[in-house]
Amino acid sequence: MFYDALENQHGLKHDPWKSLAVPRPIGWISTVSSDGVANLAPYSFFNAIADRPHYVCFGSGGMKDTLRNIEQTKEFVCNIANYELRDHMNMSSAAVPYGVDEFPLSGLTAAKSNLVKPPRVKEAPASFECRHFQTIALPGAGKYKSSYHLVIGLVVGIHIDDRYIKDGLIDTATMKPIARLGYMDYAVVTPETMFEITRPDVGPDGQIISTKPEKWDGQYR
Ligand SMILES: Cc1cc2nc3c(=O)[nH]c(=O)nc-3n(C[C@H](O)[C@H](O)[C@H](O)COP(=O)(O)O)c2cc1C
User: Fold this and answer.
1) How far is the CA of 42 from the centre of ligand 1 (A)?
2) Which pLDDT belongs to residue 118?
């Protein structure tokens, strides 16, 4: 099937979009208002977009508390959610009024960050302290008026729970990060769902010279 995305007449039971761009990592964003009230909410229109230096971004549908706080204080923390924390993550998405701190509401501990004012989720396997870089108002198109903002942050500090570091590498299989699918579905990374592929090497004349794992130089790219 094919349909015009601007008209979005897909003819299916439910808009398939969020079930197609999958799995989406969850940026579990903590912020603080200028008068010091913390806020926490999950965002799955989220990703890491650069690593030298490190940048992350997320999309907010409308003016949510997270966006409001970032406009005030220019900082946020992006926490990583894993299977162990799935219900806490979900609870923190409750549409409570502005000024309600979702940390106690979702049974989580707000730990002090090192370089930014917003607290991080102490229980999270990893947290990225971010300085706000830019917010882009995404223009509307077709039948849709503009409502989404893309928030980009520069990562200035990274916390990793030492439990998930093994032999100098992140033990993703133990960390079990979760990701959002469509509908009410989620995915979790487990040893069974992980696999390895080594990247092809290209020779001086542009020819592929090796894709065999046994010839891999052990370097991660
Ligand atoms: C797993 C998950 C992912 C979500 N992703 C987004 C998202 O990408 N963008 C968005 O605007 N809302 C998203 N939401 C909804 C927000 O978390 C929800 O509107 C929340 O109340 C916003 O909180 P805030 O007003 O404190 O920022 C998501 C909810 C869940 C449970």
Assistant:
1) 5
2) 98
